[in-house]
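dude i think i finally got it to work??
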Amino acid sequence: MTRRELDPWIEGYLSYSSDVRRMNGRTVVDIRCTLKKVCEFTLAHRPQVPLWKLSLDDYLGWLAHEREKGSSESVLAKQLSHIRGLLDYTWRSGRSDRNVLDGFSLHDRLRKSAPRALTLQEAKLLVDACAGRSRPHRRARLVVLLLYGCGLRTSELCGLDVQDISLEREEILVKHGKGGHQRTIPVPTGVWTELLAYLAERGGKHGPLLRTQARHRRISAGEVGEIVKSAAASADIADTVTPRTLRHTFGTHLMDRGVDLAVVASLMGHRTPNETGVYLHVLPGRAEAAVQSLFDDDKEET
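look at this
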């Protein structure tokens, strides 16, 4: 099935996002889906009016329509961000007088909920569930260890090559992080030992770090998900566990140990404070304790 083309100006913006801003391909696809959805809505309600000429009321009508269809506030907030990017692009290019969504946000309406994270005991059970002498067991164990011990996104894990492992510095180079950003992650000692054993067994100095069993092709996100799902079932963990759960567990456990928020953000490849700030909500009393410590210091000095 061929991809449906949008307005040439919108296609130009998508190309700009991909080629100039170097946005992740999956993100560009998500933006395309959002803009296509809005175009279909406006075609029925405001035909012949391009997106950058719509009023705020038009977009409020679209939001109401999407809510009736069951879209969550978090999904709508993400889609508004996609539209806002296009409107900002058209405004800066002189194609419109202003960005009607500038300053408009749904984030204040969103309830900040703690991301699902495993306890230390559950994390240990998950790793132990991958114990075994076969190559598939050892590969599954490494997948779980890298997701939990290094906080990798699934796409980052799948994209790792053997040459991304620095034997001298005992760290991993993530070349294809979110938004095209790179970062290095120090590997914990326990994970490093398993990684070295895997590299020795795998052999070779190039190519995908994690490969399929049959044709030695790069492992897919779907296979990573199945590995984690199978390990969770073997560990008898009742709740749903996904690769993202392990990434959230990495961030949560770092925060729980008092690691500085900026360090957590750097390790996880976050680009904004909001991304890391969510982990504050799984640690009740952390912010209050930090503020109270100021007065505790004053007491000690007196």
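The domain at 8-109 is CATH 1.10.150 (DNA polymerase; domain 1).
im so relieved honestly
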